Amino acid sequence: MGCADGLIRRADQTVGSTVPPAVGRVRSVVVQRLSRAPSTLNHEKSRPRRAATPSTESTAVITLRPVEATDLDEFFSHQLDPSANHMAAFGAKNPSDRGVFDNHWQDILNDRRITVRTILSDGHVVGSILAYHDGEAPEISYWIDRSRWGQGITTAAVGQFLNEVTERPIRARAVADNASSIRILERWGFQQVGETQGFAPARGAVVRELILELP
Ligand SMILES: CC(C)(COP(=O)(O)OP(=O)(O)OC[C@H]1O[C@@H](n2cnc3c(N)ncnc32)[C@H](O)[C@@H]1OP(=O)(O)O)[C@@H](O)C(=O)NCCC(=O)NCCS
């Protein structure tokens, strides 16, 4: 599971880093307070204002519910997808290692700082979304089945999740070339407030990651 998962991983790594310290030091957080354009969104309404360009509206019934043990098989298959891992960049070093995956999800499910939900499309498990609270602004992240991309599912799920996790400001991270995720966040009124660089296991390289915030 994507960025906050990466964040959770990195939090773990910070503790017992598997990333060579040198790389760690590359991770300079440059918080540039960009002048905030007026928010394009109205938080009250769960549906974002119509974007100028035609947008992807999910025609399916999108719902969120607490994670059930049987969902993990689906989540495991989702994070095996190479293009999804590349897109998220901070996913697992070895996505096919089920043992690591299961331990990681037990950490997520047992961590009171994390609000996590399964995303359903017409009742089918299609992904997950979480908010990770580490004392500063909570951060959200999400990951859905590759075969369901481009159907407006995550846009709808983020809208519902923002009605459930009402703490503000709330943040999200996306690798600078993850246009899809950045588009979803901007549609819900998130704006870039900074950026960071970090070693991304799925890319084997240091990447630029944007920090976006919904005030
Ligand atoms: C990122 C991800 C969650 C997007 O999910 P999705 O359900 O396909 O997203 P949606 O269909 O709701 O919306 C995608 C938006 O991005 C836009 N988009 C997609 N590809 C794009 C591109 N290359 N350039 C610009 N916009 C793009 C779509 O047009 C849509 O915007 P619109 O509704 O205004 O038209 C999904 O690709 C995923 O799970 N990726 C792997 C994990 C990951 O990267 N998680 C996020 C990191 S935190």
Secondary-structure map with pairings?
Layout: H1 3-15, H2 21-26, E1 29-30, E2 62-66, H3 71-78, H4 82-88, H5 98-110, E3 114-121, E4 124-132, E5 139-144, H6 153-164, E6 170-175, H7 179-187, E7 191-200, E8 205-214
Parallel strand pairs: 5-6
Antiparallel strand pairs: 1-7, 2-3, 3-4, 4-5, 6-8, 7-8
This protein binds coenzyme A.
Which terms summarize this structure?
single chain; 215 residues; alpha+beta; Aminopeptidase; 8-stranded mixed sheet; 7 helices; 32% helix; binds coenzyme A
Structural account:
By secondary structure, the protein is an alpha+beta fold. The chain has a single domain (11-29, 56-214), classed as Gcn5-related N-acetyltransferase (GNAT) (Aminopeptidase), CATH 3.40.630. Helix content is 32%, strand content 26%. It contains seven helices and eight strands. The chain has helices spanning 3-15, 21-26, 71-78, 82-88, 98-110, 153-164, 179-187; strands at residues 29-30, 62-66, 114-121, 124-132, 139-144, 170-175, 191-200, 205-214. Strands 1-7-8-6-5-4-3-2 form an eight-stranded mixed beta sheet, sandwiched between helices. The chain is globular. Coenzyme A binds at residues 2-3, 51, 55-56, 84, 87-88, 141-144, 149-155, 174, 178-181, 183-184, 187.
In short:
It contains seven helices and eight strands; from the N terminus they run ααββαααβββαβαββ. It is an alpha+beta fold.
